[in-house]
Design brief:
2 copies of one chain form a homodimer. Chain A is an alpha+beta fold. Helix content of chain A is 22%, strand content 30%. The longest helix of chain A is centred in the middle third of the chain and has 18 residues. The model of chain A has no long low-confidence stretch (mean pLDDT 93). At the A-B interface, strand 3, helix 1, helix 2, strand 7 and helix 6 of A face strand 3, helix 1, helix 2, strand 7 and helix 6 of B.
Chain lengths: 333, 333
């Protein structure tokens, strides 16, 4: 038993409980202790909130911490489990993935008990925590190299009923953007696995760039809206926005909406998040570094779109993403 | 001669010239070619503009590129030399320093001809470009892990006359903040070396966080203001600001104004850039990751201050900087 993932405490205890999810050791490193908070108020929705899936998206862990602080005085029914940091090794390394094995936690679900440390984390979450919840909020963000609005998203789900419920849940955050995000490579994602287990799973993409006090207040309010919608806490839903967001929109981004860099160099953004662009409008410019006479390359909108996210002046490789476009979601509205 | 740093072209040519600064090879890697632009309009100020001193501060290279685009139609006298990327190896690695030798280019000036690649870059700039200029603008920024306003700064200079001229030059950018920045560790900085050579040197600290189209427009306008003040281009000076900046201020930050993390963990910012804070006001909170019961630690203002820059939710080590405070500069105004 000591070699199986387990909790150090009983989440069925009434009221607040705290302890750790034990991820057993393996060939690459010893046992890992992930702090977990639980609040059991009996009958009602069973929600799991996770953050820190990627180590350079720290809005999630911070908003999860705030939730833990507020829930004892706010939650009126049901059960909430909060695991603020899924991947402390990546957080400490300030990188998306864990340097130890180079793996992306969000591509190895449901994990392997005899795998690398990241596969063992996924295994522990899949086997110990996921079965206890019917709804999951996984708190991500676009990270420091992107500018984008606070959003809640889901990938397409084959089960149309589950997709509709998921979009409805995402819209309940009342964040500026609710997004249906087409993605080639969804195998091993936490959401795909949770969907396969029949769970309602939404993924917050809490903006990008710096994590400011203002942004955290917006994200916290969005999460609170969702808890109110679930009936876990009482209160009024409030519309939340950052200055650059005028309205709340439900958008769709397709695989073909990801604009890639035509060459290696420094990307210069030439438009802003949530700008409406026409076909041919300039999105950004790619500047090769090796020569000033080398032509800088304009990257243009292939069709009328809304700018969902734009790269932040970083050095990029050829074919690396520099912008995501989007358009109003038509299939359900 | 082929083993000494040199330019591939003659900067004394009238009008526009382009080519490379050749940094000779050494034990660690071969020759490096840094693209250089020159515009010679005869008599007048001689200005050197550099960017990309640190590899994760790309506002400078982008604004330098824009300058190269605009100068041929704008410059009316004098000479301007532009080197958009001092340290392409760090830019490609997306890190402040160069992975090859781990050295900070801004701590090795004036460099060494027989040193590592970064010392050879500093040597080439010090020996070939610096003697041709009387004024230097080195375009930095706070990088992705900080929120801070667009600023132009100088470290204290022993020569009071040069300090006064430098602050005046910095204020000519008309960016929201002009800063006198006390620093323990100025040995080997580009500015210290240039000051020792009697040059007027200002360092732009073009904000932090993401490099947005809006931010680039502000920085470009600031640089243009400085060129107008120098008489290199004709035009009107304009006040420039980002939304969070209400006024233009000249501030001072002391060594004791750098607030450090009391422990390892995730830093949560609790105030905003340019906020005025009283003694004891909460600046941020440090959350250790290993336990939810471990007390989170409040980081408070030690005295009345203006928040100059605040860390952006990153994981930090004990004693790592999380905020810089400042106050109005009194010595000269």
């Amino acid at each position: 038993m000591s070699n199986a993932p387990h909790l150090t405490f009983d989440l069925d205890t009434a009221g607040v409980s705290r302890g750790h999810l034990i991820v057993p050791g393996g060939a690459d490193r010893g046992e890992l202790l992930l702090p977990v908070f639980g609040l059991n108020k009996g009958e009602g929705p069973r929600l799991l909130v996770t953050g820190g899936n990627h180590g350079n998206e720290l809005e999630g862990p911070l908003v999860a911490r705030r939730l833990i602080e507020r829930l004892p005085n706010a939650q009126t029914c049901g059960r909430v489990i909060v695991l603020p940091v899924l991947n402390p090794l990546a957080v400490e390394a300030r990188s998306s993935n864990t340097p130890l094995d180079g793996l992306d936690l969000n591509r190895v679900f449901p994990g392997r008990a005899d795998g690398s440390v990241i596969e063992r984390i996924a295994d522990a979450v899949s086997r110990v925590l996921l079965p206890m919840a019917e709804i999951v909020f996984d708190l991500h963000s676009f990270g420091p190299a992107w500018d984008c609005p606070p959003a809640v998203m889901t990938h397409p789900i084959a089960d149309a009923d589950l997709l509709a419920k998921t979009l409805q849940m995402a819209e309940a955050f009342k964040l500026p953007v609710t997004l249906l995000w087409e993605h080639y490579d969804t195998a091993g994602m936490f959401d795909s696995w949770a969907h396969s287990q029949g769970k309602l799973f939404v993924c917050a993409e809490f903006g990008g760039g710096t994590v400011s006090a203002e942004a955290l207040a917006v994200y916290e309010a969005g999460l609170r809206n969702a808890l109110v919608a679930l009936g876990l806490v009482e209160g009024q839903v409030e519309n939340v926005s950052l200055s650059h967001n005028e309205s709340i929109q439900t958008l769709e981004t397709l695989v073909s909406d990801k604009l890639k860099s035509p060459a290696r160099g420094i990307f210069e953004p030439r438009c802003s998040v949530l700008d409406e662009v026409k076909q041919g409008d300039l999105i950004g410019i790619l500047h090769p570094m090796d020569s000033l006479s080398a032509e800088s390359i304009g990257i243009r909108a292939p069709r009328p779109s809304i700018v969902l996210a734009i790269g932040s002046g970083a050095h990029v490789d050829r074919n690396e993403g520099v912008a995501f476009l989007a358009r109003p979601l038509k299939i359900l509205n």
